[in-house]
Amino acid sequence: MGNNKTVKKGKKRNPNLRLVKNGETGREKKKKSGKKAREPKPEKLRFGKFKRTGILLTVLFVLLFVLIGGGLYIINNYKVTTVYVDGSIHYTNEEIMDMVMGGRFGDNSLFLSLKYRDKGIEGIPFIEMMDVSIEAKDTIRITVYEKALAGYVKYLGRYIYFDKDGIVVETSEEETSGIPQVTGLSFDHVILHEPLPVDKPELFDEILNITQQLAKYSLSADKIYFDSAYQVTLYFGDAKVVLGDNVDIDEKIMLLQSLLPNLLGKSGTLDMREYSEDTKTYSFEQD
User: Fold this and answer.
1) CATH code for the domain of 191
2) Is this prediction's pTM over 0.70?
3) Among residues 164, 80, 183, 169, which one has the least CA distance to residue 126?
4) Tens digits of per-residue pLDDT, 186-198?
5) Residue 30: what are its φ and ψ, rounded to 5°?
6) Listed ranges 9-18, 25-34, 68-77, 198-207; the one with the highest mean pLDDT
7) At which of 93, 114, 146 does a domain end?
């Protein structure tokens, strides 16, 4: 027979069979390879389009329910039922309330607290500023700071109001009670926010002092008149009180507090020009 070698066909190897060298462990081999085993990614939770729309509508419905419920709670529980108005002379309490609480939700304390937070109300005739404070969910307080008016003069059919320095602060077609009319002053023009152009500007200090003294003793003069020599006469209805020059004005008005009740309803002139502490009576000449 020939030299032909017979090659035995080997068994087919398992493809998953791995050869490990001597001294090696499976863990070290894994380190040498430097490859990290990939972790399986979590499957994403997917919703159908219809289901997503349903969830979105549910969330919107809940939010709408919360908003409506919160709005109804605020409207019903923060309704103003008590209002305090301090410092208003030129306007009635009702007029002040209409200015502050006008408009939609004007009777809601929470809305008012946001509207007037760190902010007063300006731009109202005769008023410097108004502050609004919330004292309780159903109670507010409106504090009015009026402009310091010393008196008014009539000019071209209008009432011209001025302050202690003679500055024209307001003009109006209506007379305001509680502010005396000043007559006898001579001027030929009026400019808002500028002094009245009178010959003797220091008269305004005297006018302010007179009005303050009258207010101190709860007296309200209808008119303060200055003659050509700047002698002062006060009018209380048909009764006139001649004070004279600017001497002892405070003492004369203090004494007038006790004399005036006897003059009410009478027409005539009370002469107080000659004042002294010892004088107990003054002449009253009826018209």
Assistant:
1) 3.40.50
2) no
3) 169
4) 888 999 989 999 9
5) -65, -35
6) 198-207
7) 146
